[in-house]
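ENTRY TYPE: paired fold submission
RECORD: A
CONTENT: sequence, then structure tokens
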Amino acid sequence: MTQLHPLEKIRTAMDQILQYDKSLFIEKLRLGDMPSDTSRCDLEQIFGLTAYIREMPIDGLVENDRASLDESLEQINALFREIHDYDAVATVDVERKIRGKIRERADHLYDITLPWRGLINFLYEST
């Protein structure tokens, strides 16, 4: 199997994330049914940030930033496969763990991209 260029691998991972049906996840996990449930917002943040980053010129990212983004996207894709395969009759504990993972992945994606998003956006708009 051939190795993808790191940036192409990142773009492919983002495309995979964006191909998932967010509304199906929301329905399957009953996200937002409870007023204190932030999982739906976290899921929206993952999709929104991924779509935003997908449109940015990430070619200028340093290797460490590319590696962090690649790892985060792989974790999100693994989580989304887990949610896709999730059986709605599973235990409450399993659902709670999935909701926790959604929060972790949203926070991580936000944290690792925050330092360079503004700069890349500025450079993109300046050209």
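RECORD: B
CONTENT: sequence, then structure tokens
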Amino acid sequence: MSTGGATALLSWHHAAVLEPTLGAIALMIAVPVVGAIVLTLAITGLRWLHHRRRRPAAGASETAVIEARLRATMSELCPHGWRAHVTLFDPADELPGDAPPPGERARVALDWAELDEDSGEPVIVRRVWAPTVIQAMEAMIADRRTDETLERIERAAVWPD
């Protein structure tokens, strides 16, 4: 009798191993998929943390990038050349007569000139005021774009003789 019992037990074990249920198949598929997702999220999170720690603080380098972009834009708007001069005024300094009212706190004057193609001499000379150098450069670009628009309108206009 003991032999028959052992045989029955072995038969039951073999049947369970040879015929997996649908739940067991789903589990064999789900575990590696979930593991891959968790591993991907962990690696992505570590890369993000590493990138965030190594990223320079906003400030001088960010300002340099913005300035470079603004200079490139101005060079596109003035293909024959341009020149700019920035003047910073201390709050204690007396501002020139063309400065905005004191309440606006514009302490940066930017004088810019578009240069002539042939002579290299200034053709257009303007001054803009702003609270910061970056804002003054942005105002310079807006000023140049306005000039460009007016030039296009003037070229398209029909003038009587």
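NOTES ON RECORD B: The radius of gyration is 36 Å. Confidence is low (pLDDT under 50) at residues 1-16.
STATUS: closed
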